[in-house]
Amino acid sequence: MEILRISTVGSVDHGKSTLIGRLFLDSKKIFIDQMQSIERLSKKSGEEFNLALVADGLKAEREQGITIDVAHKYFSTPKRRFILADNPGHFQYTKNMVTGASNSNATLIIIDAREGITEQAKRHIFISGLLQIPHLIVCVNKMDLLDYKQEAFNKIKEDFEGFSFRMDVKDVHFIPISALKGDNVIAKSDKMPWYDGPSLLYLLENIYTKSDEDFRDCRFPVQGVIRIPENKISGAIGDYRGYAGRVASGIFEVGDKVRVIPSGFESKIKSIITFDGKLQKAGPKESVAIELENDIDVSRGDMIVRSANIPIISQDIDMIVCWLSQNKLDTGKRYLVRHTTKLTKCFIQEIVYKVDINTLDRNLKDKDIGMNDIARMKIRTNHPLCYDSYQKNRSTGCLILIDEQTNETVAAGMIR
Amino acid sequence: MDEHLKELESEAIYIIREVAAQFENPVLLFSGGKDSLVLLHLTRKAFFPGKIPFPVMHIDTGHNFPEVIEFRDKLAKELGIDLIVKEVQETIDKGRVVEEKGINASRNALQTITLLDAIKEFNFDAALGGGRRDEEKARAKERIFSHRDEFGHWNPKNQRPELWNMLNGRKRKEEHFRIFPLSNWTELDVWDYIKSENLPLPDVYFSKKRKCIERNGMILIYTPFVNLYGNESIKEIDVRCRTVGDATCTGVVESTAKNIQEIINELSISMKSERNARADDKTSDSSMEDRKREGYF
């Protein structure tokens, strides 16, 4: 069974939490005791049964009726396991959307059919494109309030096409739904005969994700070194040195000619070891230990790649960042950079432009970068990074900036 | 192994290896319960063919099922693990905490102080635990690398964003991190994994006739730590634990499941959540959140 990682976003009152409640209720993932707890909470606020309370976890969220932070929810059908990152749609919390969506295969955007595509929805679509989420599903909600008529739905589709060329979105689906009544959520509704697409759950179960992974470019960021004084593992003389890590992309095989970067030493893969035995090869997302033929200097932060296919090695990084901190970007300051398993420092060389999130125009004059801002900037790092463009490789093309004083993660960067 | 278990396993190993790389003095919290057994197993895998490079610690409430403690000690010996045991009783004897009174008295909340004291005593900068996001609504909000301030407190409103698979474990002195490698596992995943890896478990997870009492709609196993009140009486029922904690507040479920496959079958049709049987979560709708803020696991 596959895992599908989904993130959900939507404006405050567009019914996102209700939709999640509906998915869980109808796929029977709400337990009796949790139901009772929701009923109790609903009564407190004078409601019959508030589906939204399924999704909201913190006291402050229930009190204010809004989602403040990403919540992770889990459900499964006989076809797939789903990990759902529920993101707050509220303006101040855009950083949470970037966080929740960064690992997703698919984003669900919930739009109120009566309101159409708002500025906020546009922002969410834009961010999904920036993050290169492979699949985008636009749920046009509250169709019941429009007597299930087609017009509003078509209008939203047209509007989307009018601006989507400016955004880097790939596979897009539109579904008219009513989260409250359950239309087109689990099963197809008979109230909208004009809609000939699948229900939401059917789509989630069947979206093709195998091509989302990069099997070609071999990248293995080294997390650490496992050393055993005597080499009982492969039988050779001398210490065993295994490089522990998780394959970022590509398929590594025993005997492959590899290069360790940034140092540039060449070697061959001698063994690929796991607790469960030796492997002949290891592919994307597999955690293994790789042993090399030669005794060369390899440590955390280095990357093992196939000799014939090498990423860019440079200290000058051009990237799009989303600023996540309440403290504004200080161009005079040194920031820490974490890229794969490497940690180094950087300074800001240039802020090229800031994106006006409402018009998507590039503002070349405004260099004031604060929370929720998206900008293109150039940095210079203390040590070279071994990277691919984010568009090519989501694992080796991303980085975070950390404030040395507060230790907070202040920015998410996608390398161009 | 099923594809989704392999992915979860691989993700957990990645997280555990990040802990070894980013922290100087981590500790693995171990209770002998199913989640911590899975975590221990994953930790062995993460550093294979090497050994686990950090100690394992149990915060012992003193109210444990005897078979769980036996199981814990046997396993530690077999695997050659450096096991630290810190007892809540010692914290009580020192006068650092006062034992709860009344019918629902338990040591579940007291163990927070014992844990925070131990973290200070050994200078641990990270504590790995088997908590999962599907267990409870406050846990659903928590990061994999979860920051604790110098008081050991969690601030759910100001958590560091966790992007892609990049984990930021930087901190000031006196602060520490709680690490949850099983964040994305569900209860069923844990059981499927235990089956697939053929992991041994303490006996309390399997059903048999046990002496029990019924209290507030919950069934408790009758142990020396459970006092009888009013007209409560001891009955023999076929029960098993779904979660293992302080025996005074861990309710058990009526069940006929005698092996792992039968437990999985039973779970697949169960309509009650795992923590339904925990009296400590029932006191209010935010009891877990409130305890976690104070430093509970």
Name its key features.
heterodimer, A: 416 residues, alpha+beta, Rossmann fold, Elongation Factor Tu (Ef-tu), domain 3, 3 domains, 6-stranded antiparallel barrel, 7 helices, B: 297 residues, alpha/beta, 2 domains, 6-stranded mixed sheet, 4-stranded antiparallel sheet
Share of β-strand residues of chain B: 15-25%
Mean pLDDT score of chain B, rounded? 87
Q: What's the CATH H-level superfamily name of the largest domain in chain A?
A: P-loop containing nucleotide triphosphate hydrolases
Cα distance spanning the termini of chain A: 34 Å
Overall form of chain A: globular
Largest sheet: number of strands, sense, barrel closure of chain A? 6 strands, mixed
**Largest interface, and how many residues on either side?**
A-B, 67 and 54 residues
Classify the secondary structure makeup of chain A into a structural class.
alpha+beta
Q: State the domain count of chain A.
A: 3
Give the strand order of the largest sheet of chain A, numbering strands 1, 2, ... along the chain: 2-3-1-4-5-6
Written overview of the protein:
The complex is a heterodimer of chains A (416) and B (297). With 416 residues, chain A is α+β, with helices and mostly antiparallel strands. Chain A is built from 7 helices and 22 strands. Chain A is globular. Chain A starts with a strand and ends with a strand. Chain B has 2 domains: 196 residues, 3-Layer(aba) Sandwich (Rossmann fold); 80 residues, no CATH class. In chain B, 31% of the residues lie in helices and 16% in strands. Chain B contains 8 helices and 10 strands. In chain B, the strands form 2 sheets. Chain B has a 6-stranded mixed sheet, with helices on both faces. Chain B has a 4-stranded antiparallel sheet with strand order 8-7-9-10, with no helix packed on it. The model of chain B has no long low-confidence stretch (mean pLDDT 87). The interface between A and B is large, with 67 and 54 residues.
